[in-house]
UniProtKB/TrEMBL annotation, chain A:
CDD domains reported for this sequence: TPP_PYR_PFOR_IOR-alpha_like
Organism annotation: Geoglobus ahangari
Domain called Pyruvate flavodoxin/ferredoxin oxidoreductase pyrimidine binding: residue spans: 237-460
Gene3D superfamilies: 3.40.50.920, 3.40.50.970, Pyruvate-ferredoxin oxidoreductase, PFOR, domain III
Pfam family, one: POR_N
Domain of life: Archaea
Annotated InterPro entries: Pyruvate:ferred/Flavod_OxRd, Pyrv/ketoisovalerate_OxRed_cat, Pyrv_Fd/Flavodoxin_OxRdtase_N, Pyrv_flavodox_OxRed_cen, THDP-binding, Transketo_C/PFOR_II
KW Oxidoreductase (keyword) present: yes
Example GO molecular function: oxidoreductase activity, acting on the aldehyde or oxo group of donors
Protein name (Swiss-Prot/TrEMBL): 2-oxoacid:acceptor oxidoreductase subunit alpha
Keyword terms, alphabetized: Oxidoreductase
Single biological process term from Gene Ontology: response to oxidative stress
Domain Pyruvate/ketoisovalerate oxidoreductase catalytic: 14-202
UniProtKB/TrEMBL annotation, chain B:
Domain of life of the source: Archaea
Protein name: Uncharacterized protein
Length: 591, 90
């Protein structure tokens, strides 16, 4: 029996939604399932609705939901339209009388949308309209029980409400008590009170109808967020220097490295220009260096990117893409920095842009980025959607591969830092091992500033040769192909849309193939791969389709503009739209 | 129902859970609908207040406007100090 579940855990921001979601993901991973969890939260610190969306038995999110664990009334009002018939709803009993007008934190726009359709409806009235398996927990009573059981004031046990809700929900979904217990112990190793909370919540629902799920595959897996996956991959890549300026979600990655840094130098710079400047300095000195940021910070790094190109300094810039422009929606996902990444820096700023589709690819792409940066002395921008950053997923333990440390040969007598070579790549030695000049000015082979037209032309041609050589190196690995040959439709996309598209083409009635672009600069030639109509799917206003039009036709562009992740069912709708002849499909899934 | 925690001057509502709050007298959580012998009438004063409907701090000058709109106003709000997991940068 294949287990395929879509679960949401909702509550107010600050109520432990992330912890509850992580407990659920860990529990299903312990049970041996492929599991993926994505957190959606507001950019304010506390109070607003946030939720965790979990997929069990797949790596893409799908609707409708099979279960909703709602820690407050707002979560039910927000998600009830996404519940399938006979879905499990776990909620607080005291919230059932609440009317939509009585939810202080709900956004005016959402409240008005609900009131327009249903009027000022109460939760009870909503639930009467739906066929659900409602489990209303007496949260206040459970809290009292826990307080008495552990002989502690309620103020010190009230923060276990999230554990109570998720424990009851997971138990009803068929997970056994010992698995839930293990997951809670991993989440909160030093807080036994949570285990008591779990027991009390499970006791409350013990006599209710439960689903049954078999054991999944044996073998422990790692459970990591995208930020952690990238951070660990950088540690495996033997980085020696990391600088950053705090920004969502890059800080999570940087702090993980800082906490586990060993001998790595980590610096929180005063701004992003300095962060990249410091990292370039470290790279010139021979260290494997990297920075991490997101859109607004990357804007500040632009001047330094040009410097890295001109001075031929290896550097890896991790760029987490949020919903832009400007601060935009700082904690939500987007793919709006694609063109910014490719065209960053002024002048002929040749660089590599790599896009990862999920956690596993991110783990592969980190060492690849360093390899390309160092082999070709060039900036590499590794772009990842915010969706990947805070999503939690199960990963095989052997995914990480070490990258040997940078090695340098003995300096020759007459060392030329910018020696003109056939492939454009000059010998790299760290400053200090040989005499050299590194500056932002155009230069001769030694690095001395020069405005001589012949030298300028030679250096331009050298950098062009280098980039052509790089393009040749990566040409076989620039994109992945999924699905059928001679399909009726070819979907082209990049980044975190991958898993939703891969799953959609497997179940689509229309024969479809998918070209997932992995390296976007140098841009791959995919013209030979096109079959049937061309559908471009992207979470921006059409940046990839703009690039594609240089090498192939694009019949339809499906755009996800609401700063939410792409769902499997949306891809199916986009395919239908493209086949019907629509030029543009707007995908609006998610709350 | 006139003298439950919700109406008591010792009580602050929880920022997230509607049914919960914090009693400054007992120095512990208590439920919105509970009663006890320590009840004191709530007096709204001070520079800032908490509007539960807007889920935000308001200045005393805004009090009348919120009250007239039917909003529930309290002297403050209870936020658990252990909510660090939710704090993110801009």
């Amino acid at each position: 029996m294949k287990v395929d579940l879509s679960i949401a855990i909702g509550g107010f921001q600050g109520g432990g939604i992330e912890s509850a979601g992580q407990i659920a993901v860990k529990a299903f991973a312990i049970k041996g399932y492929e599991v993926f969890g994505s957190r959606e939260y507001h950019s304010n610190i506390i109070g607003a609705h946030s939720y965790y969306h979990i997929r069990v038995g797949g790596k893409a999110l799908r609707m409708p939901l099979d279960a909703l664990i709602a820690l407050d009334a707002e979560s039910v009002f927000t998600h009830f339209r996404n519940l399938r018939s006979n879905a499990i709803l776990v909620c607080d009993r005291s919230s059932l009388e609440k009317k939509v007008s009585e939810i202080p934190s709900m956004s005016k726009a959402l409240r008005e949308r609900i009131e327009r359709t249903y009027g000022n409806i109460s939760l009870n009235q909503i639930l009467e309209k739906l066929e659900l398996r409602l489990i209303s927990l007496p949260m206040a009573e459970l809290l009292k029980k826990l307080s008495e059981a552990v002989k502690k004031p309620m103020s010190s046990v009230s923060r276990t409400l999230n554990v109570m809700g998720v424990s009851a929900g997971l138990y009803l979904l068929g997970l056994d008590e010992s698995t839930i217990k293990k997951a809670i112990e991993r989440q909160f190793p030093d807080f036994e009170i949570n285990l008591m909370a779990m027991e009390i919540a499970i006791d409350e629902v013990r006599d209710k109808e439960r689903d049954k799920i078999p054991d999944g595959k044996k073998g422990e897996k790692l459970v990591l967020t995208g930020c952690e996956a990238v951070a660990i991959a950088k540690l495996f890549s033997n980085i020696e220097f990391l600088s950053f300026y705090p920004i969502t979600p890059a800080t999570d990655e940087a702090l993980f490295i800082e906490e586990n840094r060993g001998r790595i130098i980590t610096v929180q710079a005063e701004d992003e220009i300095s962060a990249l400047g410091m990292a370039l300095g470290a790279s010139i000195a021979g260290l494997r260096a990297t920075v991490t940021t997101s859109g607004p910070g990357f804007s500040l790094m632009n001047e330094m990117i040009s410097f890295a190109v001109q001075a031929e300094i290896p550097i890896v810039i991790t760029l987490w893409m949020r919903a832009s422009p400007s601060t935009g929606i700082a904690t939500r996902t987007g793919q709006q920095d694609l063109l910014h990444a490719i065209f960053s820096g002024h002048g002929d700023a040749f660089k590599v842009v790599i896009a990862s589709g999920d956690h596993e690819e991110a783990i592969e792409d980190v060492p690849l980025s360093f390899k390309l940066a160092e082999d070709f002395q060039i900036p590499v921008v590794h772009i990842l959607d915010k969706f990947i950053a805070s999503s939690l997923t199960s990963i095989e333990k052997n995914k990480f591969t070490p990258l040997p440390k940078r090695e340098f040969s003995t300096p020759p007598e007459n060392y030329l830092r910018y020696k003109l070579t056939e492939n454009g790549v000059s010998p790299f030695l760290p400053i200090g091992m040989a005499t050299m000049i590194v500056s932002s000015l155009e230069h001769d082979e030694y690095g001395f500033a020069s405005e001589d037209p012949v030298i300028r032309e030679e250096m331009m041609l050298k950098r062009i040769r280098k980039f052509r050589k790089l393009a040749k190196r990566v040409s076989g690995n620039s994109y992945s192909v999924y699905g059928e040959k001679n399909a009726e439709i070819t979907i082209i996309s990049f980044g975190s849309t991958k898993n939703a598209i891969v799953e959609a083409i497997e179940i689509s009635k229309i024969p479809a193939k998918f070209l997932q672009l992995r390296i976007l600069s140098p841009f791959p030639d995919i013209s030979e791969e096109i079959d049937g109509k061309v559908l471009c799917i992207e979470s921006n206003a059409g940046q990839l389709s703009f690039l594609l039009k240089n090498c192939c036709r694009v019949d339809c562009v499906a755009k996800k503009l609401n700063a939410r992740p792409l769902y499997v069912d949306e891809v199916l709708r986009a395919i239908e739209g493209a086949i019907e002849g629509r030029k543009e499909v707007i995908l609006s899934g998610g709350v | 129902m006139d003298k439950n925690c919700e109406k008591c001057g010792n009580w602050l509502p929880h920022i997230g859970y509607h049914f919960l709050g914090f009693c400054n007298k007992k120095v512990d959580i208590s439920f919105r609908e509970s009663f006890c012998e320590f009840f004191v009438e709530m007096e709204l004063s001070g520079e800032f207040l908490w509007c539960e409907d807007c889920r935000s701090i308001i200045s005393f000058a805004e009090f009348e406007e919120h009250k007239n709109s039917g909003h529930k106003i309290f002297r403050g709000v209870f936020v658990d100090s252990d909510y660090r997991e939710e704090i993110y940068e801009g």
